[in-house]
Amino acid sequence: MTSEIVTGDSGPELAALVAGGTVDVPDFPKPGIVFKDLMPLFSDGPAFRQVVDGILVHYGAGSFDVVAGVEARGFLVAAAIGYATGAGVVPIRKAGKLPRPAFSASYELEYGEATLEVHRDAFEAGQRVLVVDDVLATGGTAGAALDLVEQAGGIVAGFTVLMELAFLDGRKRLNPRPVHALLTV
Ligand code: AMP
């Protein structure tokens, strides 16, 4: 049991649900990093559904045309949102995985450096794109993902994560782009 107060952009109930489905893994993948493992949340059917429904309450029906998920855990949430709304799903992948011509964006991670890519023809011009990932840390990944959506002709309709690590200031880094986080820690 914990008496910790949990907060998030969709209220304390959903924040508590995400917190309850997360396991802190110290020193993974590097010493000093506390990895937020959301696998217990994903594997709990009713909790996962509530999380997806919570995101859809925040982004009302018709506010986006397509969902872009950031590799790899973002894919899980993006696919669920896509299925629930009938929107298509676009993967934003790590370098070298996409089979056709792609735009690339490099950035720094909390634990290293990386490059993300999206197919050049992933979006129709002006399509509104909801971008999804599991955790917002420094905001490098999200910044690159949102840049890629715009580079490929999409309009960012929103950026949503299950958990935000507020002490790493990712939200500030993405400003003025709005961030929706179900849990802020
Ligand atoms: P960042 O670019 O620093 O905002 O890092 C966010 C990306 O790295 C997301 O795709 C997360 O899945 C992953 N990530 C970064 N830090 C953590 C962490 N402490 N626990 C779990 N995932 C993380």
Note the main attributes of this structure.
seven-stranded mixed beta sheet; 185 residues; single chain; 6 helices; binds adenosine monophosphate; alpha/beta; Rossmann fold
Ligands, ions, cofactors: adenosine monophosphate
Apparent shape: globular
Low-confidence stretches: none
Assembly type of the chains comes to single chain
End-to-end separation in angstroms reads 17 Å
Assign the CATH class of the domain at 62-184.
Alpha Beta
Proportion of residues in helical segments: 25-40%
CATH architecture label of the domain at 62-184: 3-Layer(aba) Sandwich
> How are the strands ordered across the major sheet?
5-6-4-3-7-8-9
Number of helices: 6
Radius of gyration, in angstroms, nearest whole number: 16 Å
Structural class: alpha/beta
CATH fold-level topology of the domain at 62-184? Rossmann fold
Count of DSSP E strands? 9
Compute the average pLDDT: 95
Order of helices and strands: HEEHHEHEEEEHEHE
Relative strand content? 25-35%
User: What about the largest sheet?
Assistant: 7 strands, mixed
